[in-house]
UniProtKB/TrEMBL annotation, chains A, B:
Homodimer. Probably interacts with PlsY. GO terms for molecular function: phosphate:acyl-[acyl carrier protein] acyltransferase activity. Belongs to the PlsX family. The keyword Transport does not apply. GO terms for cellular component: cytoplasm. It comes from Microbulbifer thermotolerans. The lineage of its organism: Bacteria, Pseudomonadati, Pseudomonadota, Gammaproteobacteria, Cellvibrionales. GO terms for biological process: fatty acid biosynthetic process; phospholipid biosynthetic process. Catalyzes the reversible formation of acyl-phosphate (acyl-PO(4)) from acyl-[acyl-carrier-protein] (acyl-ACP). This enzyme utilizes acyl-ACP as fatty acyl donor, but not acyl-CoA. The gene is plsX. HAMAP family: PlsX. This is Phosphate acyltransferase. Pathway: Lipid metabolism; phospholipid metabolism.
Length: 346, 346
């Protein structure tokens, strides 16, 4: 398996574009001698960056696929599907569809990615709505949160499918079997939340494949009381981005303290290494790379503001998904008879 | 004004009950010699805690109002309104309604508080749905976020009212006039979000009283790019609690690093004071106390897990609201002609 790792990388998109993607690719190839990368983007621009890095030996494992068309942040999903079929993002997805690569990574426009993934790869049979999911650090390990923003309106049945897909992804990530699944809500009491959330609770409870642990609140995502947290894309997006915002705020506050006063600066210097280590344990860059679950292929979305370090982390996530063949596992899980029966009842 | 500060305090509810509330009251009375407190709860239990504190001089400014009935965390809103009219929470609200006190503080059951507040105090004229709001720390100051969980289903018109109430609250908190208002969404682009969010954007844009700054994402709450962020109670609750969860996680990670290795422990000791100061700049306890905006009286909800320190902070928030008479200001803002006209159009 190890000699077979082939990933597609969309070099465009994200705030830094190829300036973060190319160095991440070089680092990835150095770290994993069995890996091969197909890099999609404007060839002249990419070639320049790679020459700068002076990595002639890696060239044989790094294939540049020229794509002059680029999807900008303002491009809406419909435009992407209709007019951006030759873009670096669409071509990278095509290479997943054709089986040339086992996974693709991009830091580009999320809406366009979701629309193009559905269009080019297609949904896994039985999946109503693919969802974005990600493992977040907790006090005890990791919690898989989904949907992170692919779907605004979610029925109880959609949330049930998210749970099943999230369980598969978290199994691959943690290697554990018996995973506790919760629904994100504004309180733990059974009467809380929207009708869809309460109806989802009934479906989760009735499903023999789900070890349902009840409602949890936003802070419980990070305590590690459960392994998978399911919610609609609006709540999941707000949860993840608010958490990221606070981490950035704390980083900024450290910097402010560091600057004030000679005495504090002295201890600040001693403390700063520790502070950095502390922060890196929870910072978003370390856990970059959301998986688009429910489409016929492994699609990994990096944070749009990803640094080279962060994009490299997203590539590691893609490697994990590719080696475990997450999309195929999700496909098998969704095809299981008991599961389909539960959905038919609804 | 300063000789007139009278607050009602619900001693029951929250994880710690009177054990966090009573020390906070003692500290508050010591700090503010002009303040008088009415403390609602089982008198024997409260008297014991106050005797323990040995504060005979403060007794004249701390009136215990005996209430044996208590609202538990499992009590639902309807039960509270029907069967808990003699509870410490309901009696504290009654003292706001009668004008005996200028504000009340509780760390009890949120659902019960919202239902009892509406029932005992009534909504301000023209307010469809009161909302919970709170000022959160940002990189540049504070951002007022609402609704934090009072309302699950919110129309565009509800969100417009939240904006107006949030502006008043943030004006009092910051003393500033021209406040930028945003809607919380999953992206900044105009096509993002639910229909209600997009419709709210149109209403905000058309309102001459609102300096509308567009959509923001979860992380923008903490950057300080805007002064007021408006959303439904589900999104607001998830945003606030996810942020709190990450801060707690970071605290726990520091502790883990501190324990490992002698060398690190040595520097850890030097660094720990600085780390604590850093964390207190953003930790939830420091910014405790959400205001229930839109009812005829100043009602402040403390975090349920509040320590004595955190409950004291909620009392400071209550003092601010009482001295500025936030509820009256919200009432005047909602009565303004232009505002009503904008609402009528909808």
């Amino acid at each position: 398996m190890s000699s077979q790792l082939r990933l597609a990388v969309d070099a465009m998109g994200g705030d830094l574009g190829p300036r973060s993607v190319v160095p991440a690719c070089i680092r990835f190839l150095k770290k994993f001698p069995q890996a091969e990368l197909k890099l999609f983007g404007p060839s002249a621009q990419l070639q320049n960056l790679i020459d700068d890095e002076r990595q002639p030996r890696l060239a044989s494992r790094l294939e540049i696929v020229p794509c002059e068309q680029v999807i900008t942040q303002s491009c809406n999903p419909l435009q992407a599907v209709r007019h951006k079929r030759d873009s670096s993002m669409a071509c990278a997805l095509q290479s997943v569809a054709s089986g040339e690569v086992q996974a693709m990574v991009t830091s580009g426009n999320t809406g366009a990615l979701l629309a193009l993934s559905r269009n080019i790869l297609g949904n896994i049979e039985g999946v109503r709505k693919p969802a974005l999911g990600k493992a977040l650090p907790t006090e005890r390990g990791f919690c898989y949160l989904l949907d992170l923003g692919a779907n605004i309106d979610c029925s109880a049945e959609d949330l049930l499918q998210f749970a099943r897909m999230g369980i598969e992804a978290q199994r691959i990530h943690t290697g554990r079997r018996n995973l506790a699944v919760a629904l994100l809500n504004i309180g733990a009491e059974p009467h809380k939340g929207t009708e869809e959330i309460r109806r989802a609770a009934e479906l989760f409870e009735a499903d023999p494949k789900i070890h349902y642990a009840g409602f949890v609140e936003g802070h419980d995502i990070f305590t590690g009381v459960v392994d998978v947290v399911v919610c609609d894309g609006l709540m999941g997006n707000v949860a993840m981005k608010s958490a990221e915002g606070v981490i950035r705020l704390m980083g900024q506050k450290v910097f402010t303290i560091e600057k004030k006063g000679a005495f504090k600066r002295f201890f600040g210097q001693l403390a700063i290494k520790l502070l950095r280590k502390w922060r890196t344990q929870v910072e978003p860059a370390r856990y970059n790379g959301a998986c688009f679950l429910g489409v016929r292929g492994n699609v990994i979305k990096s944070h749009g503001g990803a640094s080279s370090e962060a994009f490299y982390r997203a590539m590691i996530t893609a490697k994990e998904c590719a080696e475990a063949d997450l999309a195929a596992k999700v496909g098998r899980a969704m095809a299981e008879a008991e599961w389909n029966r539960a959905m038919d009842k609804s």
